[in-house]
């Protein structure tokens, strides 16, 4: 994996797959400002440009707990159906403009009921927005978007949200997730929800190994049966580099690699939460070299001031990745999507592989 850093325009034109993106972490600053004004919610700053900087700087603290506090403002302005629909529509438009061809966007319905919406109404509002966004993308920018319904790990509604995900799985919901502060809230607290999902043949991912270490990953996989790991950065703690440069994998790391368990990594977000010291030192580099099932993601585009293009360009600059490497990350992600096999294959063969053919993105 070597070569000159890739040009941002080339990367933007290349098809990309996004598995880990939070709806309430990807709002446009101007939308936050407008929605806040409509409901009288007080923001730290009013100007959209200044607001965007505030979100990035507030999240750039090195603390996951502080990082999560920035969501108080985005969640506050997403309490009405019209707001949820708008945010969802704009999310799809922004992803399509960035060259994303498939996305799973996660959000926690339980956090959007303060103004009287039911769980079903909230999910329906987001689904409407996604469908409007797909229709609006146009200009040949094909995109498929699915919801992931998240339960908050410090609350006690995971079974209810798991049942909601199953009820909506043929209507735009691809799977289930738990999120929130890891420390003190292990995934096994929600074991009944995960067992229910397994009985229903449903897909789920678990935030694990971001702010907490190997026990969180081990529980997510071996107790809860996660299909994917949200971040999973700390799996690096189970890998030792010998004096001669040889990597020795512990039993958990070996299992994760052997089973091809996808790692939903988000480099810029991981820097902000303290899970990595720099892009060049991000565990993604070694894990990619060792051929773990690594995927590249944005996590929270507003808080990290990022996009899939920015993430991939930064990785190209840090590790010398070329288009073949980005194609590998993209196919990894598409293989790992919570989409039926034939639909995944159609996107890989019909969209992703042709999209990385040389020269990338050349128009006819």
Automatic annotation (TrEMBL):
Annotated site location: Important for catalytic activity: 231
GO biological process, one term: inosine biosynthetic process
Record InterPro entries: A_deaminase (IPR028893), A_deaminase_dom (IPR001365), Ado/ade_deaminase (IPR006330), Metal_Hydrolase (IPR032466)
Binding site for Zn(2+): 20, 22, 207, 299
The keyword Nucleotide-binding appears for this protein: no
Pfam families in the cross-refs: A_deaminase
Top-rank taxon: Bacteria
Keyword Nucleotide-binding: no
Coiled-coil spans in chain: none
Annotated Adenosine deaminase domain residues: 15-353
Catalyzed reaction equations: adenosine + H2O + H(+) = inosine + NH4(+); 2'-deoxyadenosine + H2O + H(+) = 2'-deoxyinosine + NH4(+)
HAMAP family, sorted: A_deaminase
NCBIfam families linked to this entry: aden_deam (TIGR01430), PRK09358.1-2 (NF006847)
Entry's family note: Belongs to the metallo-dependent hydrolases superfamily. Adenosine and AMP deaminases family. Adenosine deaminase subfamily.
Designated name of the protein: Adenosine deaminase
Gene designation: add
């Amino acid at each position: 994996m070597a070569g000159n850093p890739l040009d941002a325009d080339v990367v933007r034109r290349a098809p990309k797959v996004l598995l880990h993106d939070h709806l309430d972490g990807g709002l446009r600053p101007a939308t936050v400002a407008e929605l806040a004004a409509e409901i009288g919610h007080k923001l730290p700053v009013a100007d959209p440009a200044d607001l965007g900087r505030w979100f990035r700087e507030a999240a750039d603290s090195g603390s996951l707990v502080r990082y999560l506090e920035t969501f108080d403002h985005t969640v506050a302005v997403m309490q009405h159906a019209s707001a949820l629909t708008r945010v969802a529509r704009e999310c799809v438009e922004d992803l399509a403009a960035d060259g994303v061809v498939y996305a799973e966007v996660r959000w926690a319905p339980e956090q959007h009921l303060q103004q009287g919406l039911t769980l079903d109404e909230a999910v329906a509002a987001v689904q409407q927005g996604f469908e409007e966004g797909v229709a609006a993308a146009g200009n040949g920018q094909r995109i498929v978007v699915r919801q992931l319904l998240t339960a908050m790990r410090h609350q006690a509604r995971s079974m209810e949200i798991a049942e909601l995900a199953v009820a909506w799985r043929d209507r735009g919901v691809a799977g289930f997730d738990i999120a929130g502060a890891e420390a003190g809230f292990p995934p096994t607290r929600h074991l009944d929800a995960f067992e229910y999902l397994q009985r229903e043949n449903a897909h789920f991912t678990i935030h694990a190994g971001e702010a907490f270490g190997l026990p969180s990953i081990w529980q997510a996989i071996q107790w809860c049966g996660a299909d994917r790991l949200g971040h999973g950065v700390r799996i690096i703690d189970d890998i030792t580099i010998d004096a001669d440069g040889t990597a020795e994998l512990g039993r958990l790391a070996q299992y994760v690699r052997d089973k091809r368990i996808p790692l939903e990594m988000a480099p810029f977000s991981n820097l902000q939460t303290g899970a990595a010291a720099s892009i060049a030192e991000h565990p993604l580099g070694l894990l990619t070299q060792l051929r773990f099932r690594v995927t590249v993601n944005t996590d929270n585009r507003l808080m990290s001031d990022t996009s899939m293009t920015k993430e991939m360009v930064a990785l190209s600059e840090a590790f010398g990745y070329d288009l073949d490497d980005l194609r590998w990350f993209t196919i990894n992600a598409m293989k790992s999507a919570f989409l039926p096999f034939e639909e995944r294959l159609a996107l890989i063969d019909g969209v992703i592989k042709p999209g990385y053919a040389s020269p990338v993105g050349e128009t006819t």
